[in-house]
Amino acid sequence: METNADMIAARREEILERITRALARADRTVDDVTLVAVSKTVGTDEVVAAIRAGYDTFGENRPQELVRKLAELNARPDVAPVRFDMIGNLQTNKINAVLGRASLIHSIRSLHLAQAVSSRAQRRIDTGELAGPVDVLLEVNVSGEESKSGFAPDEVRSCVEELMELSGISIKGLMTMAPQGDKDVARRVFSDLRDLRDELEVRTGARLRELSCGMSEDFEVACEEGSTIVRLGRVVFDPAFALQ
Fold it and tell me: pLDDT in tens for each of the 244 residues of the chain?
């Protein structure tokens, strides 16, 4: 009988094969993409199984879960250290829980949030608690869906210089989510995110390498359109999820 750990390991091999093929179609290589296993709906035992299957980067959307899982994993000497990213909406009153724990914050959705993260990070830098600015991505609502958070593209254009001047954060790129259920629409969203990134790089002179886009339903399209980080949850952990 196949165990959950067996399923996670076998599924990882299939995911990597699909990512490799998608990247080859775009003349890219597997080194171009970081695979984030989104562990927000599973427990620490499943995370351990994923680590043993070869995953080394995980994503959480709630700071309290990030804190809990890191503490439980750190208490297990048999488990290798891994990276955790913050991928969900971050409330200002939860910023301190994330600083020093999340390697990358994917969800800077407004100038106000960027300023809040920067100011609190700068205080920790000044006291020696943080070695340097916090790596972040700007969340952009490329599709314009009311249900999604993030900067509108024109908002990013209007305040990107101000964002770049914030001393407590280091902007590494952009993040978006596409509407579910239509891969052609997803492709346009991911392409538009890449074009926006290229525009902002020319405008600011900054290197914005990272494009965090692509989830369980559309990660192959995202890889074809330039994604450097794919965030996969159900396809990694849910045996009932069927790869199309």
Answer: 568 899 999 999 999 999 999 999 999 999 999 999 999 999 999 999 999 999 999 999 999 999 999 999 999 999 999 999 999 999 999 999 999 999 999 999 999 999 999 999 999 999 999 999 999 999 999 988 887 889 999 999 999 999 999 999 999 999 999 998 899 999 999 999 999 999 999 999 999 999 999 999 999 999 999 999 999 999 999 999 887 6
Direct distance between the N- and C-terminal alpha carbons of the chain, in angstroms, rounded to an integer: 24
Closest CA to 145 of 110, 185, 87: 185
Domain ranges of the chain: 4-237
Q: Which token pair is 30?
A: 């597997």
pTM above 0.90, yes or no: yes
| Residue 40 contacts residue 61 (beta carbons within 8 Å) | yes
Distance set, CA 59 to CA 28, 159, 188, 211 (Å) = 24, 27, 25, 15
Query: Residue 37: which residues within 8 A CB-CB, separation 6 or more?
Result: 47, 50, 55, 57, 58, 59, 232, 233, 236, 237
| HEC per residue, 48-63 | HHHHHHCCCEEEECCH
Backbone angles phi, psi at 134, to 5 degrees: -85, 130
Name residue 169's beta-bridge partners: 134
For 236, the token pair is 């990694």
The fold adopted by the segment(s) 4-237 is: TIM Barrel (3.20.20)
Which runs of consecutive H residues, i.e. helices, occur in the chain?
4-25, 44-53, 63-74, 95-98, 111-127, 153-164, 183-204, 219-224, 234-237
